[in-house]
Each structure stands twice: as structure tokens, then as C-alpha cells.
Amino acid sequence: MNCWVMAFVGEHAKSNYDVARRTNTFCVSSSRTPIRRARAGDRVLLYLAGEGFAAEARISSSASSPDGVPRWYSKKTPLWRISIEDVRFFEEPVLYRFPGDGNHPALGFHRYSLTSGFLAIPEDGFEDVLGWSRAGSSSELAEDSPAPEVVANEALSVPPRPSVRSRRSPDSVPSITVDPEREREKRMAGQHALHEGRKRVAMWTVAEMGASLLNLKGVRRYARSRVRAAETTWVSGGRAEERVGEELEKLLPHGFYIFHDVPLRGLGNVDHVVLGPNGFFSVETKSHSGHVTARGGRLARNGRPFEKDFVKQAWSGCYRLREILDAEVAPLLLFTDAFVEGRMAVRGVRVLPLKWTVGEILAPSIRHETGAVKMAVSKLSSNTGCHPSAAPRLA
């Protein structure tokens, strides 16, 4: 049996929470949220932003597509609908404030989707959330208020929340230094490329329309070429990163944390960063087609060298990540639509087709302890302002 946290946050948190209480239904609009793996009988905690954990319940049916859009649902069309039962409300909410914006890499909180003002967050053994059996040193609880004794119905007996001073942090959970001036965020695969590409397509489309109205044929042809270039370079690249992101999610059962579109000062973005027990990896994604080979330490497509040095680009991001993590990071270069001739290593960078990615990451014999992996997640999150886009469940 799995345990889940259904957290209501944002501008409409209270109204969405009241709707869930009234209808015994929880809806999400993202196809990426892992709540779709919820099954009947799984246990659930309901978290209301600003108040704390307010109730517990059980899932009465597996996640399924709703028959229609509920009348009360004014946001995006829900893709998943989950029914709950046996809802038991605590006499007083259990105080807990998610550090930062609701993500905590060391304790296992990760924002998967922010839709309609609430989150869906999976959690194995959610007693850890309340601090009953384990708590991280970065957990933030109200020290100036007495710990309320939480009691639901007679059928449910919940231990009181221990004071902050009585809690002990396990050695495997590191302390996290949070930069208060930087708002952390969870970035989706291809986020920057798609945003930039759509912006450029829109800008040059407007320019093309203006040139048509003014009968400027030369300007119109140029604007149209820029639209096609933006679609080819940025939009297709962003979609390729999305495909890689979906492939990397297969690593979650093996204990890997996955970052997407990680910004590095002075270097732009690294498409993906994978941190796990089998090693740390930086991943660059390319959407080029054709036959990719290596000659003289350079990559070529259909026998002709690429205009850009992708190997140098992969190493640039990798070196910066090594400085941040103070650990060995292996660079990977993935081609989503090209035929890659064999398992190539070009100047130390492994060049792979998309379908070999998971196997290549799981192959290394190196093993990192759980504490070392979480420390690396903490360092990268603090330095870049990003949280993992996907993460394993706590054991």
C-alpha cells in the first residue's frame, strides 16, 4: 500500500480543499503527475497551505479519466480524477510548513504539477512528514506555538507532534542551505527551448504579417525563413528534450533524481542532470536527424562535420557541475532522431541514441550512498535555484 500527500496550495487552496471535502474527489490536470499510479486502498493525507495537515483518508478508486468536467471545476480540464473515502479530520491541523515553495529534496518532497492551485505529492511512509519517526534538519515548524495533540475520530489515534528540540536528524539526511533571495522552481524538460522557440515564432510571424500588409516581399521572405529556423532549432529541440525527460523517468525506481533545463551562470542551460546511486550525469540533447559518426575527435552527420562542437558544449556544462557538486560527473550526448553508429566516446563524451540512455546510466559499477546522492541534490538545488523535476519515493 502506498501513501500519498494531496496538498492544496495557491490562490484557490481553500476553495479547492472545500470542494474536495464536499465531493470526495481530487482532480489534477497534468499527465505527468505520479498520482495516476494511486490505487484503491492507498492512504492519503490532505494538506492545506497555511494551516497544515487537516485530514486523512483512503483512495476508493484508482485514478481514471473523468466522464466530464465538473461544474465546480473552473480551471484546466482535469485529466485524472481520484475518489477518496473514510475521510477523518483532525481536531487541529498538524502544523507543517514546506521549506521554500513546497519542495524539499532531502526529505523527498517534489512538486510534480501545479494545477488549479494544488499539488499532488507522493510520499512513502508519510509519518515522516509529520515528524513522528524521522525529520530532516531543514524542516520548518512553528517553534513559538505549543504542539497540538492531534486526534481524529475514535478509530484513529495519532501521536502528538514532537517539539523541534526533541527531533533527531538521521546522518543520511543532510542540512540544506537555502538562498532566501532566490525563488526555487521545478523546471520541465524543454522548458527554456520551447518558450524561446514559441516567442521567436510569434515575433517573426507578426513581422511576416506586417511585411505582407506593406508589400515588402524581401522582408516577408526573410521573416518566414526566421519562423522556420525557430521551429527547427528551438521548438523541435524542446520537444526532443521532452522525449528524453520521459525516458529518464524510467530511472526513478532505481533511486535517481532528475533535473531538467538546469541554468548555469555564464553557460546557459544543461538539458538534464541525473543524480543517483550509479553515478552523476549531465545530459545534452540534440534533435538532429541523419547518420552520426565520429572522425578525428569530431562528430559528423552524413559524413559532414556539425557546425557546432557539441562535445565541447557537453564538457562545458559537465565541468561546471563538477565544481558545484564537488564530485565526478559523466557527460552524455543524446541524439533523439539520428542513427548513431555504435557506442561512441568522443573526447570523453559518450554519444548515444535515445533508446540506449537508461541502460548506459545503469551500467556503471560506481555506487553512491543514499546520503551522498541527497547531498548532491541539495548542492545543485541550492546553487541553481532548481528542484528535482522527478525523484524516487522514499524507502
UniProtKB/TrEMBL annotation:
Q: Where is the composition biased (Basic and acidic residues)?
A: 179-194
One Pfam family, short name: NERD
| Gene3D superfamilies linked | ph1033 like domains (3.10.590.10)
Q: Which residues form the NERD domain?
A: 236-344
* UniProt region (Disordered), positions on chain: 138-194
Q: What is this protein called?
A: NERD domain-containing protein
Q: Which organism is it from?
A: Rubrobacter marinus
